[in-house]
Structures are given as structure tokens and as C-alpha cells.
Amino acid sequence: MALDGKIRADCFQGLFQDSGRCLGNFMVLPVTGAPEYARESTMVKSTEKGHAGYYSVATADGILSECTASPHCGVLRFSYPSDEDAFVQIDLNHRSGGCATEEYCTRAGRNAISGWIRCTPSTGGWGHGAGNVSYTLHYYASFSSPVRSISLN
Questions:
Q1: Is the pLDDT of residue 106 over 80?
Q2: b/e map of 76-115 (b: 16 or more CB within 10 Å)?
Q3: What is the pTM of this model?
Q4: What is the pLDDT of residues 1-40, one digit of tens each?
Q5: Per-residue b/e over 49-63, b at no fewer than 16 CB within 10 Å?
Q6: Coil, strand, or helix at residue 150?
Q7: 75 has which bridge partners?
Q8: By C-alpha distance, which of 34, 32, 43, 33 is closest to 8?
Q9: Rounded CA gap, 116 and 127, in Å?
Q10: Which residues touch 54 (CB under 8 Å, ≥6 apart)?
């Protein structure tokens, strides 16, 4: 979260660590309205709650975002206003300090997606590639509603 009251797509991100060497991103942002690429939402600071193992905040457009974690995965829950079209925007290309080399995403049943993100030092990353680490981040995401479309841009 930034001090300017904005929630950015990389605020809800899945990070993994491999023996202390590297981190990768799975950037998620809940949005309403027309499905177009967004990078941030305005948070309502007075709704912010947090304690060890839990964080939540609402956005100005009425989305409640909640997150928690287990030893092997992160759990995000988004509650949308009932009168709005709801979307979960997942950015597979951008990562801290650079971009992914290659991305793959497919439906994994009616309400889920799965895939991978391949990252190499040639496209940046932590230390802008100076760590000389290549890795592939695999993901699986399930939703309470059917996945209507997948778009890789």
C-alpha cells in the first residue's frame, strides 16, 4: 500500500522464496465496471483492519479485499457490490524489477485457472537481474463464480 491512499495491483501479490535467492510476483487487483486494465484503486483508510495473519480494506468503489496466508499459499477474498460487474485482474507479466519472459494461463475447470510465469535475469527481477536467477512460478486460482474469459495481452 502506498501513502497516497491507492491500492496498486502489486499490493496483493503472491510472493515465493526459493532458499533465500529469488522472489516472483502474481499480481492481483479486484475491479468493477468495464473489463479494462487498471493499475490501482482508491482505498478507504477508515475501513482498514489488520492483525497477525489477516488484513482487509475496502475501496472507494465498494470492494472489500481480505487476505491471509498458510505455510504454502496465500488466500485472497474479494466481496463486490451486488449491482456491479465484478472482475479479478491478474497481471502475469510484471514483477518486481522487471517483466516475465513467458506466461501461460488456462482454465482448470469451470471456476479456476492455472498456469505458470517464467522469469530470467535477462528481463530484470530482484536486483534488476543482477542475482542471475531463473525460475518458474506455478499458480492455481479458484473463484466462487465461473471464469468467463482469459485474456493474455
A1: yes
A2: eebebeeeeebbbbbbbbbbbbbebbebebeeeeeeebeb
A3: 0.72
A4: 445 566 655 444 444 443 344 444 677 888 887 666 666 7
A5: eeeeeebebbbeeeb
A6: coil
A7: 68
A8: 43
A9: 22
A10: 66, 67, 68
